[in-house]
């Protein structure tokens, strides 16, 4: 099959992380946002920002995204692929919906944000346009019902986010320090206030815990006054993997979530996860590989950390399960499910018939898509 993927990369993604890895594993033709410079581009951006870019429903949709969509339309007219897959439907999809009739193949989009973030757009502004999609992929089971209401049940499928399990691996021999090492990575939808409160109580109770926090410098202020905290930013992927491998648990309390690169990277490195029971977290973190606590509640987290300090095996026994859980989301397995969706659509079957909505099957897809 000849597949074209419209992709996007975020600066906070690791070299081997991000949803755009799906396009590479599929062997698809990749069209991505570029950011050139020069007077012509500056004029084009200004005109775009004063017209199309002023639409409030477009989240982080830029002139370069508009150009990328145009490129997909033009290239598809010259040689129509078997499907076009927009990997970030929330933030790089507009032109293809509005000019859907010019695209002579199925159009699929993956949605990463919680449905509440895009509800006004798809219920009021672009409800008719959204129904022009042939399939919508959601990354959390909790998001399926809203998209099914907008598009129809048979067009919406849950396929998990993937992870490179060859790059993110456990240490060959994990060292055990006297202090419990707790790691936090990322910033999206994080409950910073809860994290600060937990750290304060841990220090007040004199628990032997060190916190490593990897995030953007603009979020460092949330840890002002916190003791036993080491802040990191802009570290290379190899250093991040070392932190995953040498820590005892990943702690990322969230206010909402669908899928999380940080969670998948940690699990792949054999690191148990402490997070919040909201959104898609239960799809990725089970009782065998981590702990999910109620939203905004400090006491269960502090109690868990106290138990982990007193009984280190609580974390150790989950390390093997963490790695096993991550293997269910290996990119090759995710690509198998996505390929099944493409084939179902091209064979005139509803996308929902291509997948059960559960993590992919145990065998690895032998067939890679031919983009030539």
Write structural notes for this entry:
This protein is of the alpha/beta class. The protein folds into two domains: 3-162 and 330-354, Rossmann fold; 180-327, Glycogen Phosphorylase B (Rossmann fold), CATH 3.40.50.2000. Helix content is 37%, strand content 14%. Strand 1, helix 1 (21-26) and strand 2 (29-32) form a beta-alpha-beta unit.
Q: Can you tell me the residue ranges where pLDDT is under 50 for at least 5 consecutive residues?
A: 357-372
Q: Kindly report the CATH topology of the largest domain.
A: Rossmann fold
Number of helices: 14
Distance between the terminal alpha carbons, to the nearest Å? Answer: 9 Å
The overall pLDDT average reads 90
Q: In terms of structural class, how would the helical and strand content be classed?
A: alpha/beta
Overall CATH class of the largest domain: Alpha Beta
Reading the helices and strands in chain order gives: EHEHHEHEHHEHEEHEEHEHEHEHHH
Keywords:
alpha/beta; Rossmann fold; 2 domains; 6-stranded parallel beta sheet; globular; disordered C terminus
Show the helix and strand layout:
Blueprint: E1 3-7, H1 21-26, E2 29-32, H2 39-50, H3 63-78, E3 83-86, H4 95-98, E4 107-111, H5 115-125, H6 127-130, E5 135-138, H7 144-151, E6 156-158, E7 180-185, H8 192-204, E8 209-214, E9 229-232, H9 237-246, E10 249-251, H10 261-268, E11 273-276, H11 281-284, E12 290-293, H12 299-310, H13 313-327, H14 331-346
Parallel strand pairs: 1-2, 1-3, 3-4, 4-5, 5-6, 7-8, 7-10, 8-9, 10-11, 11-12
Helix pairs in contact: 10-13
